[in-house]
Amino acid sequence: MGEQELIKEAFEELLTVLRKDTTEEEKQRIRQAFEFANEAHKGIKRRSGEPYILHPIAVARIAAKEIGLGTKSVIAALLHDVVEDTDYTLEEIGEIFGAKIASLVDGLTKIREIMGGDTSLQAESFRKMILTLADDVRVILIKIADRLHNMRTLASMPEHKQVKIASETLYIFAPLAHRMGLHAIKTELEDLSLKYEHPEEYKVIAQKIEAYHREYTGLFDKFIAPIRESLDKNGYEYTITARTKSVYSVWYKMQRRNISFDEIYDLLAVRIVFKPTPSQPEKWQCWNIYSLITDLYSPNPERLRDWVSVPKANGYEALHLTVMGPSGQWFEVQIRSERMDEIAEKGLAAHWKYKAENGEGNSELDNWLAGIKELLEQPNSNALAFLDEFKLNLYAKEIRVFTPRGHMKTLPKGATALDFAYDIHTEIGNTCIGAKVNHKLVAMSHKLQSGDQVEILTSEKQHPQEEWFDFVITAKARSHIDDYFKKNRREAIKRGERIFEKIVKDLKLSLTAELMRKILTALKLQNKEELYLKLCLGTITQEELAKELKKRMENWFAKYWRLQFFKNEREEREKEEYKDEENADVVISSCCNPIPGDDVVGMDIEGKVQIHKRKCPEAIRLLASYGNKIVPIAWENYHITSFVAVILVRGIDRMGVVNEITKIISGEVGINMKMIHFETKDGIFEGVIQLCVHNTRDVNSLITKISGVKGVENTMRG
Ligand code: MN
Questions:
Q1: 365 in helix, strand or coil?
Q2: CB atoms within 10 A of CB 262
């Protein structure tokens, strides 16, 4: 078949699906529009290789057949790409087809410009776009038809465009179709979007639905047989169909509820569409059918949905009930009249059509238009649930840019070349010196636009600078730059720690967490890291620290022991003083050098407590002369002497997990790590940690803390 025959055939086919009330004169004008468009697009091919004109014909067909639009819309659909793609102007279209058609085409052309995605206009112009559309709601409906055909033929587009178009469809057009009550189209748009955005998941779910459908077809027949019998007996004209949930709605439910396919129970619904008899109101007939069904099967009262008395916001009317089937399976049953069914499938246009038949046509459509326009002009009103605002913002705030090899990256609007660099790889970000955007050299602070192709220039000598924070906007880039600075800080801290350890060693001190706390308080520091950092930087000198440490050491004898001062009943004041170890001035006497565990005695000499072994001759001498100055003391276990415990850790390997675990251990009071060994295989790590602890409470508390680390699956005593 020649190209022109193919085109002719497609057009003749369009004529057969026009609304029944289309007059001969209107058909003539449609033919004129077709011939005009055919001439304008002559010789131009779609990506798939077929003549371009087949696209506007298909869009007109969807507008007429699937949405139920009339002559003006069909003409506008045929002409919708003429102004954008050919030399014809809007004025010419206005002269030939009239002002109304021209304004519809104008609206469609404007949306296409905005949806082109290569301007920075997107965000603010989106509302303007809708306002433009609202001149006539038919613009939105034709645009939906246009998008539906593009989605149906998306396979011939390059992959990066497929994903962009698919996500745009999901964020903008499917909600729009839903709002317009175009249920079938909304479902198809969603399914097609999913198919291109998540092809694997789409395939798996589609196959499972298919299998489910096959499995329950027999059950379905058994379920509806008595219903048919009852409806026949009561003289109803009707059709009954089994409807399975759409692939997208199954996928969405699985995502939202975090459940598996097998946990979805409302996969199968039975739809009864009846031809209403003029003698009774439709609502009454719906409830009558409800009554006939519940005579046969028990309903679940929790799952009754009455959209007959109060239609949904998008005009949907139906009665839904769920009943227990013959083999203990729940069935959802939807009851609709033919009119309700058409409104559900075709939405707004069908609604208008039914009103028109009752002679209220144009005024009703006008009301709709006025209503929608009013909503759009008050974008803050709650009634403007026209588009899901969150999704809209998400879309408007994103740009899509490309690597030199054509891979698409999605970044927030306002992202710079440096954000892009970090999005590719941390090292590329860390060494970025500039970029080429669309082959032109730009600074790394250059703001990217949708559609830009970006090549990052790097240098080994480069490293992150403080001012980079001023021009990155993505969290990813920020955290990588932050990490770099932190890592450098970490090295300074490590050096400071080594200095600290040397001072402590030189003073022959044994360091406890409590002593550390006192040092930090005395030097007015937040934590160890700050101390180490300041030591490394010299903000705190080694002499200062040594002095501070020496001041404390007199009160501290050993790591796990301290002196206990017993109550002196005669002198309450002294008791108070001595109890406060911070203030107690204690001197270990050099004559007998008592160590923890020795039997000791204290002598209060001029406000200082001298500690002697009980057997020390000097002590005996002093006891004889200064009996009244005796301070009863004893060594007390401060912590039980340490023992070795082993902890086994297992989990999913990720960056920094070992670091986090060691950090927890080193933060514990009185726990010392003896040995740590980690091994990673196939993304799973296993660690053995040997610790010196004082009691089982220490170990248990540590296990609880380590279990809380992200990625750790299992922690136990070895
Ligand atoms: Mn188009």
A1: helix
A2: 8
Nearest Cα residue to 177 out of 254, 66, 252 = 66
**Strand duo 330-337 + 268-275: pairing:** parallel
d(CA 368, CA 373): 9
Q: Give the pLDDT score at 151.
A: 95
**What is the DSSP annotation of 209-262?**
HHHHHHHHHHHHHHHHHHHHHHHHHTT-EEEEEEEEPPHHHHHHHHHHHT--GG
Q: What CA–CA distances, in Å, run from 651 to 632, 683, 698, 716?
A: 53, 9, 22, 12
- 3-class secondary-structure state, position 22: coil
Structure tokens at 7: 């085109």
Q: Ligand 1 centroid vs 404 CA: distance in angstroms?
A: 29
Q: 């002294």: which residue's tokens?
A: 574
The answer to whether residue 580 is catalytic is: no
Q: What is the spatial distance between Cα 400 and Cα 420, in angstroms, rounded to a whole number?
A: 11
Taking the centre of ligand 1 as the mean of its atom positions, its distance from the CA of residue 109, in whole angstroms, is 9
**Lookup result for tokens 């050299």:** 441
Answer yes or no: 84 catalytic. Answer: yes
User: In this structure, what DSSP letter does residue 51 have?
Assistant: B
Distance CA 48, CA 57 (A): 16
**Cα 81 to averaged position of ligand 1 atoms, centre (Å):** 6
Digit-coded pLDDT (tens) for 61-116: 999 998 888 899 999 999 999 988 888 889 999 999 999 899 889 888 877 766 66
Catalytic residue selected from 26, 50, 85, 514: 85
Residue 271 one-letter amino acid:
R
d(CA 35, CA 42): 10
CA–CA dist 335, 60 (Å, integer) = 31
